[in-house]
């Protein structure tokens, strides 16, 4: 029986979620997101209802596990990807919030002052650094989709893509005291992977990563060694597992210790030995989000971790 693990800066106890009322896969983002699925003609209303139910179910399951969920509604039909809030903002220990420049103009309306103001009322926020003005210069960095942050070692891993610009990454790392580690990652067809968080998840005692997506052998070995040197168990994911969103997971700290939130599809894709490695430090929490996954993201994309201290 696992003893209660200590609180880890890597595993937040609270998250922000957006519940969409008019969800649909976004045609404007499909060009560089090979994980998206085109819906059948006439299926949009059915998809929206299903996605609403899935987001509701995820929030309820997380709350049941002891995670605090700050759940916001999106009743607008103009922001089809709003269910993925981790792309436009992130929060950090010490009371800091970052707001990010988004690659697709269709996604820029997802940034909401009311969410930031609510966080300021509930948590201690000292400053907000807004990088969204970089959009005017064609410079983009889509939050913790574009970056996978090792909060313990202070490293920001980022795969190069349209949505991850090294200039913006350097600025973020300078402001927030992270070391940037940039690499090229491609899928089995040789296409650049649009977001780092679909191929990589860093937990307190483990890392999920699709090493085969890094074609440069020297860079692949360097990153694998670097992760192993932190003492984490490195779980190497295949291209097929990445396509099933096995890398798009997030470690959280619940009522009974650390959990790994991931989709049911992702959990089914993991081999028994991989699950056994993960279960040495986390409890697996599979969540049903098949409709939302049609938009090219999964559970990790749906969760914006709150690394802020509560007021009071």
Please provide a written account of the structure.
Helix content is 27%, strand content 23%. The strands form 5 sheets. Strands 2-1-15 form a 3-stranded mixed β-sheet. A 3-stranded mixed β-sheet has the order 3-4-5, with no helix packed on it. A 3-stranded mixed β-sheet has the order 6-7-8. It is α/β, with parallel strands linked by helices and 312 residues long. 46% of the residues are buried. The protein has one domain: L-arginine/glycine Amidinotransferase, Chain A (5-stranded Propeller). The protein starts with 13 loop residues before the first strand and ends in a 6-residue tail after the last strand.
Query: What name goes with the CATH superfamily?
Result: L-arginine/glycine Amidinotransferase, Chain A
- Calculate Rg over CA atoms: 18 Å
What summary fits the major beta sheet? Answer: 3 strands, mixed
Straight-line distance between termini: 34 Å
Strand order of the largest sheet: 2-1-15
Number of helices: 10
What share of residues is helical?
25-40%
CATH topology category name: L-arginine/glycine Amidinotransferase, Chain A
- Compute the average pLDDT: 93
CATH class: Alpha Beta
Low-confidence stretches: none
**What is the CATH-assigned architecture?**
5-stranded Propeller
Q: What is the number of E strands?
A: 15
What's the order of the H and E elements?
A: EHEEEHEHEEHEEEHEHEEHHEHHE
Share of residues in strands: 15-25%
Number of structurally distinct domains: 1
Structural class based on helices, strands and sheet pairing: alpha/beta
Shape: globular
């Amino acid at each position: 029986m696992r003893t209660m693990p200590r609180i880890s800066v890597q595993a937040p106890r609270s998250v922000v979620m957006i519940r969409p009322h008019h969800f649909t896969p976004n045609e404007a983002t499909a060009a560089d997101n090979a994980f998206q699925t085109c819906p059948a003609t006439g299926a949009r209303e059915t998809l929206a209802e299903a996605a609403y139910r899935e987001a509701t179910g995820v929030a309820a399951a997380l709350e049941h596990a002891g995670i605090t969920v700050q759940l916001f509604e999106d009743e607008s039909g103009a922001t089809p990807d709003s269910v993925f809030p981790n792309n436009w903002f992130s929060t950090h220990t010490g009371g800091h919030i970052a707001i990010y420049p988004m690659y697709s103009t269709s996604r820029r309306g997802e940034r909401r002052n009311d969410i930031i103001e609510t966080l300021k009322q509930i948590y201690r926020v000292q400053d907000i650094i807004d990088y969204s003005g970089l959009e005017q210069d064609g410079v983009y960095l889509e939050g913790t989709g574009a970056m996978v942050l090792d909060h313990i070692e202070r490293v920001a891993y980022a795969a190069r893509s349209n949505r991850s610009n090294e200039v913006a990454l350097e600025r973020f790392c300078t402001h927030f005291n992270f070391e940037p580690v940039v690499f090229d990652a491609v899928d089995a067809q040789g296409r650049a992977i649009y977001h780092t968080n679909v191929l990589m998840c860093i937990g307190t005692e483990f890392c999920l990563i699709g090493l085969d997506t890094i074609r440069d052998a020297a860079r692949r070995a360097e990153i694998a060694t670097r992760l192993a040197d932190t003492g984490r168990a490195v779980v190497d994911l295949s291209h097929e597992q990445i396509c099933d969103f096995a890398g798009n997971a997030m470690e959280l700290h619940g009522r009974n210790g650390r959990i790994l939130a991931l989709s049911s599809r992702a959990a089914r894709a993991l081999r028994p030995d991989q699950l056994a490695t993960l279960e040495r430090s986390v409890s697996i929490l599979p969540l049903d989000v098949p409709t939302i996954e049609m938009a090219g993201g999964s559970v990790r994309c749906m969760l914006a971790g709150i690394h802020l201290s509560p007021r009071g």
